[in-house]
Amino acid sequence: MPRLHADDRAKCQGNIERAEARLENAVHKYGGNSRAAIDRWHELNAERERCYTLYHGWWDPRAHVWHDGREWERYDQERGWHHGP
Questions:
Q1: How far apart are CA 20 and CA 47, in angstroms?
Q2: For a disulfide at 36, which of 11, 17, 26, 64, Cβ 3.0-4.6 Å?
Q3: Residue 59 in contact with residue 12, Cβ under 8 Å?
């Protein structure tokens, strides 16, 4: 993997980790169905979508792995975070 690509992918990874941490904080502080949690969930999904578009994968901070499928909705449902359609 070229260095620039690796650096960009690492930036994507960090963005997802920070977005997930903000969501966890909002859920803990305000509840899973709060406006803050829903907004953070949308931000997290936007980061995942951006990474998936660029690198055909998304980072899973819990398992410390990149996934090449778009299964993050199932992941969110398992954690009680799903607020989408």
A1: 10
A2: 26
A3: yes
C-alpha distances in Å from residue 28, one per residue of 16, 36, 37, 64, 84:
18, 11, 9, 22, 19
Beta-carbon contacts of residue 79 (< 8 Å; ≥ 6 apart): none
* Inter-axis angle of helices 35-55 and 3-30, nearest 10: 170
The whole-angstrom distance between residue 75's C-alpha and the CA centroid of its chain comes to: 10
Q: Which domain holds residue 45?
A: 3-79
Domain contains 85: no
pLDDT tens-place string over residues 5-45: 668 899 999 999 999 999 999 999 999 899 999 999 999 99
